[in-house]
């Protein structure tokens, strides 16, 4: 489990992005926006407790130790850089597929040409 250097008395919903990412269960979500991370922490607090206010880091760590499961977001990030990277990768994959099909057709054409002569 990741080492959490946050004060145990600080409330979970008042944490900033760098602090949220230090919480166990949120360590792999650093590419998400701050508003998204706040929503995720709010959802996790409601999972662990019925409190709307005053849920501390110490209480979160105690609950997390009982069931150490990383948080799985329900959607991809809205961060534009990540979306742009995903679009680039999808475009490269599509172009590679088109190029391979063209190569296969060219080879078939040349084979047919040789057989007809």
Which series of helices and strands comes N to C?
HHHH
Please identify the oligomeric state.
single chain
Terminal CA distance: 70 Å
Globally, the shape reads: rod-shaped
Helix vs. strand class: mainly alpha
Q: Give the helix tally.
A: 4
Main beta sheet: strand number and arrangement?
A: none
What is the averaged pLDDT score? 82
Strand content: under 5%
- Count all strands and give the number: 0
Fraction of helical residues: 55-70%
Report low-confidence residues grouped into runs of 5 or more.
none
What's the alpha carbon Rg, rounded to whole Å? 25 Å
Structure commentary:
With 117 residues, the protein is mostly helical. Helix content is 58%, strand content 0%. It has helices at residues 17-22, 34-48, 57-66, 80-116.
Features:
4 helices, mainly alpha, single chain, 117 residues
Write the layout of secondary structure elements.
Layout lengths: L16 H6 L11 H15 L8 H10 L13 H37 L1
């Amino acid at each position: 489990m990741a080492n959490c250097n946050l004060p145990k008395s600080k409330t979970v919903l008042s944490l900033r992005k760098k602090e949220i990412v230090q919480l166990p269960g949120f360590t792999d979500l650093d590419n998400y926006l701050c508003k998204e991370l706040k929503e995720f922490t709010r959802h996790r607090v409601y999972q662990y407790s019925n409190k709307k206010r005053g849920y501390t880091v110490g209480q979160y760590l105690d609950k997390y130790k009982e069931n150490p499961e990383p948080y799985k977001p329900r959607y991809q990030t809205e961060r534009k850089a990540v979306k742009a990277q995903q679009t680039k990768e999808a475009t490269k994959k599509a172009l590679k597929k088109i190029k391979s099909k063209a190569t296969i057709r060219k080879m078939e054409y040349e084979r047919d040409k040789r057989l007809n002569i």
